[in-house]
UniProtKB/TrEMBL annotation:
InterPro entries per UniProt: RNase_K
Membrane topology: Multi-pass membrane protein
Protein name, as recorded: Ribonuclease kappa
Cellular compartments per GO CC: membrane
GO molecular function: RNA endonuclease activity
Species assigned in the record: Hyalella azteca (Amphipod)
Swiss-Prot/TrEMBL keywords: Membrane, Transmembrane, Transmembrane helix
TM segment ranges: 12-32, 64-87
Record lineage: Eukaryota, Metazoa, Ecdysozoa, Arthropoda, Crustacea
Gene for this chain: LOC108672671
Lineage: superkingdom: Eukaryota
């Protein structure tokens, strides 16, 4: 049962592979607390003590790393569906 066409499923496969690679890479960088991503953290405008700021930074990095992992898992599901559709379309094309 084909839900989408040959080219659409191929495009979904390529975008899924790129999304998996990018989100896994970003997740690793968030996990090791890369300073390049400090602007992407959900931080407050003002902190009373430096310890509160450091705690929020560590918590933000871990939360963003986890979110990237969840996004990569969703791309894996999309890759599976797109690959299934690609082979379903290929099978119906060559049966003639």
């Amino acid at each position: 049962m084909a839900l989408c066409g040959y080219k659409t499923s191929l495009c979904g496969m390529l975008l899924s592979v790129w999304g998996i690679v990018q989100l896994l890479f970003m997740g690793v960088l968030f996990y090791i607390e890369s300073p390049a991503f400090i602007e992407d953290l959900p931080l407050n405008d003002h902190y009373d003590t430096p310890e509160e700021y450091v705690t929020d930074v560590h918590r933000g990095f871990k939360a963003n790393a986890f979110n990237c992992l969840i996004g990569a898992c969703l791309y894996i599901v999309t890759l599976g569906v797109s690959t299934w559709q690609f082979y379903m379309n290929q099978k119906t094309t060559f049966q003639v």
